[in-house]
Specification:
By secondary structure, this protein is of the alpha/beta class. It contains nine helices and twelve strands.
Length: 248
Amino acid sequence: MRRILVVEDDSTLAAGLQSNLEHEGYQADISRDGATGLTRARTGLYDLVILDLMLPGIDGYRVLEGIRDHDRTTPIIVLTARADEADKVRGLGLGADDYVTKPFGLRELLARVSAQLRRAGLESEPTEPDPIPLAFGPITIDPATRRVYRDGTPVGLRPKEYDLLIALLRRRDRIATRLELLREVWGYHQSVTSRTLDTHIGELRRKLENNPAQPQWIVTARKAGYMMQVSAPGAGASGLQGSGLPLT
């Protein structure tokens, strides 16, 4: 997991950035003053720094200069309300890799984070997903109509239940984290909680499993996420328990 340091004194903005970065799969830490941010950035534990210029104590320019005295490679995105060209030139001259002016669009900032990590060789380009299996056990799937059948009988899945099933099948026999499933099926919405995910998993089990209380296909990796187990149809959840994963 890539680690990002956000040096920002506005507590509301900092918390919002942290939340959204974590929803994108990053680990995000916050420093709310220049001195603390510089100290943490120099540890070398971070893959990218988002740095505000208007900071209490040591301002962002001095923090930027201090980081670059020790580290020439970690990407730094300057985040500031200063829109003057001279300020941008100064920041870039001190070693900033990108410059985002407040107010900014969240999606744009996240795209810039991803782009800087790719340039640093820390984030791979998207790859084509593995083919999705269209049958497992008694279940068959018709992607053209988004219909699912159990022993040839149609199963009435709601749209999000179908999307969740496909997301699990894409990661067949691998754990799908809660964050991955929430992002892929629901996108980023703060109103969507893990309870929503658990409810939909419960409905899928009720409609697809022979015994929803002891699922054979859709198993739980406790504190991690869920797994669609399709490679060993006869194993059930007990087969995964034998691998050391805590399951329910």
